[in-house]
Amino acid sequence: xxxxxxxxxxxxxxxxxxxxxxxxDLSSYLDGLLYSDYLTYWDYIHLDTLLSLQNPKTQxxxxxxxxxxxxITELYFNLILWEIEQIAYREQLEEKFFIERLNRxxxxxxxxxxxxxxxxxxxxxxxxxxFRMALLPASGFQSAQYRLxxxxxxxxxxxxxxxxxxxxxxxxxxxxxxxxxxxxxxATELASGKKTLTLQQFEEKYSRLFLETGMKYxxxxxxxxxxxxxxxxxxxxxxxxxxxQMSNVIWPLAHLKSAGRYLHRDTEDIKATGGTNWQxxxxxxxxxxxxxxxxxxEQEKEEWGRAGVLHALHDQSGKTK
Length: 321
Ligand code: HEM
Fold this sequence. Notes:
The model has no long low-confidence stretch (mean pLDDT about 90). It is built from 19 helices and no strands. It folds into 2 domains: about 5-35, no CATH class; about 60-315, Methane Monooxygenase Hydroxylase, Chain G, domain 1. The chain has about 325 residues and is mainly α. It has helices at about 5-20, 25-35, 40-45, 45-50, 60-90, 95-115, 115-120, 125-130, 145-155, 165-170, 175-180, 195-215, 220-230, 235-265, 265-270, 280, 285, 300, 305-315. It starts with 5 loop residues before the first helix and ends with a helix. It is globular and about 85 Å long. Helix 5 (about 60-90) packs antiparallel against helix 6. The chain binds protoporphyrin IX containing FE (HEM). The site of protoporphyrin IX containing FE (HEM) has 21 residues, from helix 5 and helix 14.
């Protein structure tokens, strides 16, 4: 028999040590290797499962585009949350790590903004208007991951409805703030002024998670970490400004275009169908959500969601489109 390559013997020794630490017998694990199959691409990424998760409710072909694009978005949201979690739980948060992870998050949002044309131009309007009626009262509004990104990025008070923000500043009670978050105003029926079913169901399912997340990130959200560790770093500040814009202006504006393309109608018509006040809600200039308000001048805040701020940011970083 050919003698074993010495480097292989060395590897086996290391493996033996590794398993011995846990009181395990390497030889049994080697038996397992003998019997196990080679890994395949399709098993590794769970391709069959992935492709079984699109279940249109109607026979309109474009509904598949709608479902898949929402799923793609949720996967990117998940990556953003994944990066935030790594930042938040890093034992020693170095500036380089913070910046690199912020860059990734900005990049994910940039991909989403760039691909939103799939929603804006990639479906037939006639089909959309029909299949959407079969999806009521579900709405992207109910994306919990979108809310989690917000809750992990800033203090809850910065997500409170702009008209009540100042009054609630004094209350550190997160539960109270949670009741007044800005997005509740986006799910009010135009005709009755009541909470929509969309919102009621969303709250029933997720309020507890949102409160727990708010508490968990109270002292470790991106804003807190920035203020604690890098309040004077121009590079960190530039990235945070860009992330703020991507999350709260640029992505919302790309999204708004799709609502405009498919749903643009008179307020009176919308009232008649039990629709929401999205025209008064979705444009970022109305909600004025900023994760890092201290990083914006009074004028930039005043112009939030308008072209001026975008240009200012472009001049500063040379990156944002
Ligand atoms: C044709 C495509 C789309 C249209 C017409 C549309 C329309 C709307 C409308 C009207 C609202 C306001 C709430 C409501 O009335 O339900 C809304 C909210 C929302 N949608 Fe969409 N949407 C589209 C695609 C998407 C996609 C692909 C996502 C990705 C997950 C998404 C995520 C959201 C989120 C997160 C909100 C809440 C925004 C906020 O609170 O600021 N939407 N959408």
